[in-house]
Here is the input.
Amino acid sequence: MKQPLFVNELSRRKRKDTLFTGFVFLMGLLALFPLFLVILAVLYKGVLGFSNHFSVTFIPSLVMEGGLYQAWIGTGFMLITSILIAGIIGLGTGIFIVEYANTGFAVFLRFIAESLALTPSIIIGLLVYGLFATVHGNFSLLEGSIALAILMIPAITRDTEKIIGLPYRHLREGALAIGATKVQSLFKMVLPAAMKSLIAAMVLTLARAMGETAPLLFISLSNNPSSYRMNDSALSLPLQIYRFALSPYSDLQAKAWTGTLTLTIAVLLLVVFSRWMDRSVSRQRG
Amino acid sequence: MRSIRFHFTDRLFAGVLFLFALLLMMIGFWFVIELLSKSFLSIGQLGVNFLVNPLWNPSHHVFGALVFLYGTVWSSIIGLTLATVVGLSTALLLTQFGQTRLVRVFSFFIDLLASIPSVVYGIWGLFVLLPFLKGTYLGTGIFAAGLILGIMILPTITKITRQVMSSVPQELQDGALALGATRYEKVKLAILPYSLAGILGAMMLAFGRALGETIAVTMVIGNHPELGPSFYAHSATLASVIANQFSEAKGQMYLSSLYEIGLLLFIVTFIFHAGARALIWRVSKPMRLS
Here is the structure.
């Protein structure tokens, strides 16, 4: 009498468990599905765009012969300038939080960095536009670099503080215990040890910034797409993709896809590089 | 003598770094002050009406943000729902069933998913997802935007819930198994209750992120600022209206109300991030939020 009940109960529980396992695996596959869809589409359409580029098309458009290489130059320039600015300021602020700020101030600075890092980037676009529109109406690579630097500073600050804060506490204390100054402990012990992680974090920030469109949406404006000169307007690759994709010309849309392909490859390469750097560190640490 | 010199360099170094920290603070204050001052005109003239007026018609000087709040909230809720179901399950898969290699490969792919730029999701949504959705009964608009948002915030939810779940004490898990629990029962009785706060935190963080996502949403949502009857109608969000109209905006009032929309976005995302921070920090302190 009782045994069938028990067996029923057990098989019911087991069935539930099997269902749960199946569901979890299914959802796991589903999580990867969009990544493959996006990458497939980018590869397919991007390569298609490449081959179209060499064929002669007679679609009326303003930038028939313009490729995206100026946009790449603009993006490259802005990334290098902004990582230089944001690297120094972000690293410095992160170090300040760890080494010199008292607890209350450190919490406050950390709070600001974290909040700014999570602020929607379109707001940076609004504010940077306001900042430069009052000074002068001319937008170029410099303004774009500053917009990207503002985007990167909070992220680098937060990363620096997380990387050299707790994990290297023992190293710092050891250095101070044998009579080193804070500067010595920092430059001789902590920074060399944390160098790879810091670089990995910065490369990741750079990869994020590379694809950012929103902060540049209202500056580095070149509403006239036929103007490709470096000195009078800045072009940015993601921004150009955005404009081309929304344009009604299939020629420009094909160019947008090709740009997307190159952008995606570049971003993914940076991410892979960053992970490789970070992993070699964690392997060293054991 | 020597020690004095060293302390001098230390002080000097601290001073320089303090200037950098000051700059970060100034950027923070500048955000708030600039947004407030630029939207002052709109706040003063429209007051609360700005938030409840469902009409947005700049050419007739009618400014109401309700339609954008509607589009933002619903598209984000759709995205959050999708991402939570899939992301939570993926985190369970990784913590409960994952061998080391599977976990490593999976988290690598999730990282890639997280790093794909917004504009790439946008162009994919515009030329691949929208034509596909038009072929089905689903349609475009808020739903399409929600779907894209779901994909974009999936890595956030997966990563954080995984970290939270792996901080569940081993004794608790072993205890559940020792009492004869199946894997499902272990998850239900030990894992989920313990990591509930962290999961909620991850959801809030992802929601805040979805609210502020701009480019991808702007490209698929249709940018039609009208309170639609269905999720498949074209709509607009707080971020997408700024992206779409700010460059062409003429007139003090128009600009000011767009800045007020920016302020609104800033406040709303800030609230969600602050909540997320509080919840996640309660579970495990040294965790990266993004």
